[in-house]
Input
Amino acid sequence: MYSDSNTAYADDIMQSDSDTPTRFSRSAELLWRGRERPAPGPKPALTLDRIVDTAIGVADADGLDALSMRRIARELDVGTMSLYRYVPGKAELLDLMLDRVSDPGTLLDGAEDRSWRETLEVSASGSRTLYLKHPWLIQVNWARPVFGPNTVAGVEWVVAGLADLPLTDQEKVMVLTAVDAYVTGSVRQQIMYQNAAEETGVSDEEFWATQTPVLERAMASGNFPAMAALAANSFDAGWDETFAFGLRCLLDGLAGLLERQRGTMEGLPAEGQPGD
Output
């Protein structure tokens, strides 16, 4: 493997302004315009796409904590400094990774023919699949994403699917936020559960072997009658079943709101309707 004696120094220098506004500008430039095309000649072995794909592979395998410019350079068998010809640093690279995995892909197929409910169901299920495929995403702070082409395309088709709802634009965005919050909360719970055995070194069987006797005594005490009355299989639902049920409840609630909204709108003049 290629070694670079200056890798530690390079990582320190190249990451020094990773949280400044300049960093966000650099990321946006890379996302929308990419790097300048190389001069005529043989196709370079190293490309920005290859770097991003390798970084995603590292994060998928070992999590975000394992992601560094040095690790990616080792995976690509190149010197760390050569990466900086393509991407300024780890922070910008993460922005590129987020946009790459956010590609809506096949979710766009038939999008124009979906109802608002089908749109939200497909979007929610697609987001859940994405998080479970790339568990490191749950560690990322998405509060201020750097919007790239894939991210914008993903939001565009969902917004278009809600266009005819009797809601204001602000309310439509709040619907998207509520569904996203449900998805991330559900996925976070599932990933944490799946990681618990590895993180603690205690299997599910071993854990419940310690907890069951305690819970049985608690239920028999009469102090927790509601819990004691639960059916034996109350906690046996799988993750897929639980997610689908929760999403159905959320969308049923929205459907009821829309029906009430439409009923109210029937008595409004045209200029008083949402979106005007």
About this structure: The chain has two domains: 7-101, 105-201+237-272. The CA atoms of residues 4 and 79 lie 6 Å apart. The two ends are 62 Å apart (CA to CA).
